[in-house]
Amino acid sequence: MSSSFNGGVKFSLFGESHGKGIGVVIDNLPAGEQLNVEKIGEFMARRAPKKDGTSTMRSEKDIPDILSGIYEGKTTGTPLAAVIFNQDQHSADYGNISHIARPAHADHTGFLRYNGANDPRGGGHFSGRITAPLCFAGAVCGQILSSRGITTGAHILSIKGVRDDVFDPVSVTANQLETVKKRLFPTISENAEAKMREVIASARESLDSVGGVVECAAVGFPAGVGSPMLDGLENIISRLVFAIPAVKGIEFGNGFECADLFGSENNDEFAIKDGKIVTKTNNHGGILGGISSGMPIVFRAAFKPTPSISRPQNSVDFKTMTEEELVIKGRHDPCVVPRAVPCVEAALNIALLSALLENPSIPEV
Amino acid sequence: MSSSFNGGVKFSLFGESHGKGIGVVIDNLPAGEQLNVEKIGEFMARRAPKKDGTSTMRSEKDIPDILSGIYEGKTTGTPLAAVIFNQDQHSADYGNISHIARPAHADHTGFLRYNGANDPRGGGHFSGRITAPLCFAGAVCGQILSSRGITTGAHILSIKGVRDDVFDPVSVTANQLETVKKRLFPTISENAEAKMREVIASARESLDSVGGVVECAAVGFPAGVGSPMLDGLENIISRLVFAIPAVKGIEFGNGFECADLFGSENNDEFAIKDGKIVTKTNNHGGILGGISSGMPIVFRAAFKPTPSISRPQNSVDFKTMTEEELVIKGRHDPCVVPRAVPCVEAALNIALLSALLENPSIPEV
Amino acid sequence: MSSSFNGGVKFSLFGESHGKGIGVVIDNLPAGEQLNVEKIGEFMARRAPKKDGTSTMRSEKDIPDILSGIYEGKTTGTPLAAVIFNQDQHSADYGNISHIARPAHADHTGFLRYNGANDPRGGGHFSGRITAPLCFAGAVCGQILSSRGITTGAHILSIKGVRDDVFDPVSVTANQLETVKKRLFPTISENAEAKMREVIASARESLDSVGGVVECAAVGFPAGVGSPMLDGLENIISRLVFAIPAVKGIEFGNGFECADLFGSENNDEFAIKDGKIVTKTNNHGGILGGISSGMPIVFRAAFKPTPSISRPQNSVDFKTMTEEELVIKGRHDPCVVPRAVPCVEAALNIALLSALLENPSIPEV
Amino acid sequence: MSSSFNGGVKFSLFGESHGKGIGVVIDNLPAGEQLNVEKIGEFMARRAPKKDGTSTMRSEKDIPDILSGIYEGKTTGTPLAAVIFNQDQHSADYGNISHIARPAHADHTGFLRYNGANDPRGGGHFSGRITAPLCFAGAVCGQILSSRGITTGAHILSIKGVRDDVFDPVSVTANQLETVKKRLFPTISENAEAKMREVIASARESLDSVGGVVECAAVGFPAGVGSPMLDGLENIISRLVFAIPAVKGIEFGNGFECADLFGSENNDEFAIKDGKIVTKTNNHGGILGGISSGMPIVFRAAFKPTPSISRPQNSVDFKTMTEEELVIKGRHDPCVVPRAVPCVEAALNIALLSALLENPSIPEV
Q1: Record: contact B68-D25, CB cut-off 8 A
Q2: Closest chain C C-alpha to A156 CA, distance in angstroms
Q3: In chain A, which residues have their Cβ closer than 8 Å to the Cβ of C124?
Q4: In this predicted model, which residue has the larger pLDDT, C249 or D362?
Q5: Which of C116, C175, D103, D185 is most buried by a 10 A CB count?
Q6: Chain A closest-CA separation from residue D170 CA (Å)
């Protein structure tokens, strides 16, 4: 029951939406890894709210203050801690703490879980803001992966049914991943972007919100990393991805589609290409028996529509136990998916570095 | 990188398909819990191969030998270990260990991961057989949940597109769960059963296999259990469900469907019913912010078609690095889904008991 | 391999002696616990350097900045993070990073462990400064214990052979523990204090240092908490106490002395007193089979003399691999023991709260 | 709160003294390590009761049945499980379960901890018998260490004040360790053996028992392995050593003696010898900052006298809450120390392999 993860990489997240600061301590990183702090900032900026109408108007600068773990530009190998001090909090918006549960939020479940003692302002520790330190950790892990020739990337696969192109699970390249993730609105197809922006704008205008799907991939990840049973890549990635609020589903490779196929259709035949073992198709999403096959790792995560909508909703005041109408004020994203893209990528980065570090090889004596 | 789990409940799985024995050590169970060993056997029998053409003809009696942790019919509170000795191994079928990778199996990834030292016979530790001790652990946890009024159950939601009815996410009852899970072929609709049996029979005849989806639910689970971020119910359940070989996707509540909805459609409004806070709909699947809401917990897991099919397949000998045609011999399930139903339920049982035990309440001094 | 602990209480320490900040994230604390921030400060002040000649002249204000986890004066139940920003760093003292290993320090072992990438300034993460956030965590846990009637305390048992009185292992009281820990120089006997101060002063004058033993106890801790084997109270306490640099030994109850006794002398006979089961003697130190007996918990930790002494020492430059004479500059404690007293107490506080929280009781449904 | 350990090596112990079987699952072992099962048996035989009057007359054959994790003589890399079926149980000796707490045993604390549901026969899971699977795990880890040139060994340093010679902390050799551990009564000095045997015989005759100290060492362990703070070698070793019932203290290097020294006496000066950095003395016991220095690792553990003595003792019936005289029947070791020697070594073996495996090196991609 905690906000920490103890794999090959260990990290501990902290902070509440309207508290003094949020952050993360990352432990067990390899020593001597060159980190580019500016690029960490660029990664985190991908998660920051945009001024293009797709997200909240809150300005979250989210500049992380690195307190330890880096010396002369490199990881020390001892814990790396980063803090983001909260600034633009507008607590007036949340002035009188309401006990009317916001539908699809954790107000009521959190109240029960913590006997009413949790910080309720802006969702407290349940806030999507805690994905900022998650992205910090993901950016750090991503740079270490990158220095080993491993590239990860994600894009918006769909928003309320409007679909982008897909990553080709066999031939997606590092370049494609790098290209799409640099886009302000990360889709492969510009046409899809335009339509998605329309859907989002329309939802915002009607005081509503929309959900979507993020597709994420890794290339260059070596074959033979991971484990069967409890610590396979799917186990770790899914555990980390569900740390992102609003995720309700995850699938690897062809995912739920495999349930409708014959084995003869779904099985990926092996072949030799350029002296390496590959599969001709990649329905398995680069993972067999929890272990990487050397093919691109591909998965998708489903995000529900932003729970906070400005329309009146029926609800319950869980202190007075009376039914009440609720109108949520404040600034909210009409769609969290664009900002969720780097979060999913961060989860993957952490999972992959973690798995690499857990390979139990005994160093030479 | 391990086959162990360290939540509120801790367990460590072991064994290889054709080794001497498989089993599990479960640690941290509450003391003094009455266990019905016969009912554990019934739970495990649901996973055993059936003689009705839907599964392998191997007879896996799988009678667990409980070595510790139970005294006078109750849990001692110290580790509970159970072993299933392998008997019907037919290692002749696997006589000359082939290094031709079976498509969609972990032969090659396992070989790489363990530098060729893993037990290759029948998949070794990657075998579906290791779900037998998982079911044992799930049966134990299920009985403890049951004594607290918590009921879990699962059914085959679909097999290659043929769909069963669904659990009503708002009103599914303990009775319905108990009823469906006692069925030899666990579907809600007998009509669906008939059609699914046809699909499986037809796949078997054409030396092929089929996949499907399992839907699983819990009722009676108290609200307020779980955690935000890394140890939420979705994180734990998904980590455990992905321990079952062949799972390629998981979704909670309305899952991937939520990605196509407006917030105003997807949000579950709160209401008061019989003096308790409920939601009118249950798109959230009983989990908000990683914490139980008191509504039924509902999720689905997608299973790929059995990788082992008797049709010739193209593959690669990973020792000689040559492309080879592969014909898999031996007896295999044309569809793992019926036998996977109790496995999914087991994963849920472990996750729920684990979450209950992790609620950090300080005992009275 | 990490600076984190994952028991009932989880925490992750970070920071380097001369980095930007040091701190701790504490996870899994029970929600709704009243915390007195001022008293946390008082606890930490006991660890701060004194101006009385017994410690370094560095002024470490060590005022912790609490970033999360407290709301309206109470624990939220979500992670509690605290940072101490480094101020008085005098990095000039460490200007040219020397690669001459300081005897009894971790300069060389740390260099090897982190491939030369760790922060060497002032010992980096190996510095005794990291016990400041340990004390913070211990102070927090101590307040929660205190609200349940559990009191812990420690004193200097000896410094270079000069001995204080001992806690009576059977009858030590909360009052005695509270009294001794409030003393500037925490001994039971004022006479012992005077002699110890002389020993320390004399060591400082001769550019030398001295070691000592800290004795620590808890009263009011309920019987029946802990576990056999790996997570017993002795296992946890010792693991935590060895996190304090300079500890080289730990013993519980009569400790090493028991090795010289007959069973008939060492066994603590049971009796009934005021309706409760007690032991007439307390050689077992309040722990039997890893579990609390209800008697006072008593243990001792041995501290080596401060490694940093100003006398010339023979050593080796591990970069050039040449033997060199070393003269350590800077300000150093002639004896760490007085400042170590609250650190040992902190380790005990964390261990005891952790054990209390791990009792696997299922909450009522 | 568990009988499992989750370091680089993971293991889970199970079993009760008079249950069906005891054993261990070891996870995360490197794959492809040659294991000599006969030598594992020899290791365990060192822990078995001797017929020479120093131990109980129970015959514990303790032949482990390896169920998984070894294939063609080598570790598979997947979990290795071993079971020892209990045979010679003489439950008649324990026929009517007494609720009179045996002094210095965990009868009462265990009863409280498990609400009276734990298996009380012969101490249940608290029994010293559970050190048999600990020795199995230690023997396995020891062979893997051995193949890397690392040798560990232990001897009886003292029994009730009768002292053996000590390992020279600077120059102890692998040969010396191998020699002493092969002795039936593992002392360095035959003279000491004779005197210790007398002390034990005399205790047995007077229906009493005696305690002692075990000294343990490792040579060949590479420098630079371990960590500061919570996962240092001292933290891990002590946590594992306290899993052995009857241990009441542990000290590294010169241990408690360091508390009486000046820094100038205690500091181990560095020098270069044969091109390697060494220390001239080894008060630090081969560990600085939690990390190995390359010098021999040396520590000592204190064992209390066997609690079970045949003399009448005063005690309490914790069910009836009345004071009662207790006379313990059955066969008991007058001194556990000779049989504890391989247990301490086993704890060290597990700790060292665990630390080696946790060095977070990223494999080449």
Answers
A1: no
A2: 31
A3: 71, 76, 78
A4: C249
A5: D103
A6: 20
Among all residues of chain C, which has the CA nearest to that of D7?
C1
Model pTM score: 0.96
Chain B contact set for C363 (CB, 8 A)? 222, 225, 356, 359, 361
> Are the CB atoms for B309 and B205 separated by under 8 Å?
no
Interface contact C150-B365, CB threshold 8 A: yes
Of the candidates A46, B109, B119, C302, the one whose C-alpha atom is nearest the C-alpha of residue D238 is: C302
Split chain B (365 residues) into runs of 10 and give each run's mean pLDDT: 87 96 96 96 92 67 90 96 82 68 96 94 93 98 96 98 98 98 96 98 96 98 95 98 98 98 98 97 98 98 96 96 92 92 98 89 52
**Chain-chain contact of B305 with A267 (C-beta, under 8 angstroms):** yes
Q: Is the pLDDT of residue C88 over 70?
A: no
How far is it, in rounded angstroms, from Cα D180 to Cα C248?
Answer: 25
B72 CA: distance to closest CA in chain A (Å): 32
Work out the pLDDT band at A79, boundaries 50, 70, 90: very high
- CA–CA dist B196, B159 (Å, integer): 6
Task: Give tens-digit pLDDT for A177-186.
Answer: 999 999 999 9
State the pLDDT confidence band at C98, using cuts at 50, 70 and 90.
Answer: confident
Closest-CA residue of D relative to B85 is D67
A to B CB pairs, distance under 8 Å: 383
pLDDT at B91: 53
| D336, two tokens | 């556990």
- Whether C239 and D243 lie within 8 Å, measured CB to CB: no
Of B85, B80, B99, residue with least CA distance to B16:
B85
Nearest CA in chain D to A363: D356
C365 has a pLDDT exceeding 50: no
Q: What phi, psi does C121 have (nearest 5°)? A: -65, 115
Q: What is the per-residue pLDDT across C18-49, written as a single tens digit (0 to 9) for each?
A: 999 999 999 999 999 999 999 999 999 999 98
Q: How far apart, in whole angstroms, are the C-alpha atoms of residue A5 and residue A27?
A: 10
Burial class for C92, CB neighbours closer than 10 Å (0-12, 13-18, 19+)? exposed
**Structure confidence at residue B365 (pLDDT):** 45
pLDDT band at A309, cuts 50/70/90? very high
- CA–CA separation, C14 vs A185, rounded Å? 36
Residues whose CB falls within 8 Å of the CB of residue D169, separated by 6 or more in sequence, listed in order = D217, D253, D281, D282, D283, D285, D286, D295, D296, D298
How high is the pLDDT of residue C364?
Answer: 46
Are the beta carbons of A336 and A246 closer than 8 angstroms?
Answer: yes
pLDDT (mean) for A361-365 = 52
Strands (E), chain C: 4-6, 10-14, 21-27, 65-68, 70-71, 74-75, 80-85, 151-159, 162-163, 212-219, 247-252, 270-273, 276-279, 287-288, 291-292, 297-303, 313-317, 322-326
Query: Which of C25, C91, C130 to probe by mutation at the A interface, max A CB count within 10 Å?
Result: C25
Return the higher-pLDDT residue of A363 and D62: D62
Q: Which residue has the tokens 């704890």?
A: D347
| Start-end of H helices in chain C | 37-47, 107-113, 131-146, 174-182, 190-205, 233-241, 263-266, 337-358
Are A42 and A62 contacting, i.e. CB atoms less than 8 angstroms apart? no
| D189-214 average pLDDT score | 97
Residue A71 main-chain phi, psi, to 5 deg: -140, 125
Q: A71: closest CA among A42, A41, A43, A29?
A: A29
Beta-carbon-side half-sphere exposure of residue B39 (alpha carbons within 13 Å):
14
DSSP state at residue C262: B
Report the pLDDT averaged over residues A131-155. Answer: 97
Q: CA B130 to CA B19: how far, in whole Å?
A: 11
DSSP 8-state assignment for residue B234: H
